[in-house]
Structures are given as C-alpha cells and as structure tokens.
Amino acid sequence: MRDKATGALGTYVADMPGLAQQTRVYDEYLTRLRDVPGAEIGYLAVGIVGPRNRVDKLVHRLPLLP
C-alpha cells in the first residue's frame, strides 16, 4: 500500500518508522535510519493524504479518519 501511495499523483505519504519509537533524540534517529537499507525499514504506520477518491482506491475503502 505504501509503495502504491508513494507513486500516486496528488497524494502525500507520511511514514512512521519503528526507529522513530526507539529513539528520543532526533539526531540519533537520523543516524540509525541512515544505517538501515530502505527496503528493510519497518513501518508502524503510514499516513496517506490526498483526494478522497485516490486514497479510497489505494486503501480499498478501509475506514478513514474524518
């Protein structure tokens, strides 16, 4: 879902990597994130923002936050 949303025209994807929950200092987070290959980043959440019809198509009509 994240990969499709990243490539969708008019959508913005906001990621919440697991590393963000494991560190308390932003510089440490950036350093640790830099050491992990992109394909191996574990995500706890992904926010998708955009026109409702495009978001619905990407998430297959999952309930959305108002």
UniProtKB/TrEMBL annotation:
InterPro entries, sorted: DUF2000, Pep_tRNA_hydro_II_dom_sf
Gene3D superfamilies recorded: Bit1 (3.40.1490.10)
Highest taxon of source: Bacteria
Pfam families found in the cross-reference section: DUF2000 (PF09391)
Name assigned to this protein: DUF2000 domain-containing protein
Organism of this sequence: Actinocatenispora sera
